Amino acid sequence: MEKEGCPLCRLVEGEIKTHKYYRDVTCIIVDCLTCRIPMVVVNHHGQATEEDKRLMVNAIDYLFEYHSIRRVPRQIVDHEHWHVIGARLKKA
Q: How distant is the alpha carbon of residue 89 from its chain centre?
């Protein structure tokens, strides 16, 4: 359910302005509009459940080789999202 004015809710609802890597019922992974690195966003407003978090990490691990996951939000604090630091797509 979208929270009015939340840019991450608009992203989840389909307002994608950068590269989309992945989408499922739990999350979407796109390049962050601000820093241009991959960002995983839970598909509902608010904080992710423990199961959501497990599935988000699984999606990141499936797609990328990476250095770390920044889970602390800088600007949008009321919609769980993480930045994948040092991400490179895995080769098929």
A: 15
Point out the residues of the chain with pLDDT beneath 50. none
Quick check: is 38 in a domain?
A: yes
Torsion sign over Cα 7, 74, 82, 17: positive
Long-range contacts (CB closer than 8 Å, 24 or more residues apart) made by 67-71: none
Q: What is the structure's pLDDT at 67?
A: 96
The per-residue pLDDT for 92 is: 65
| CB of 66 closer than 8 Å to CB of 86 | yes
- Residue 75's domain is classified under what CATH number? 3.30.428.10
Q: Is residue 1 included in any domain, yes or no?
A: no
Give the chain's domain count: 1
* pLDDT value for 56: 97
53 found inside a domain? yes
Distance CA 14, CA 86 (A): 26
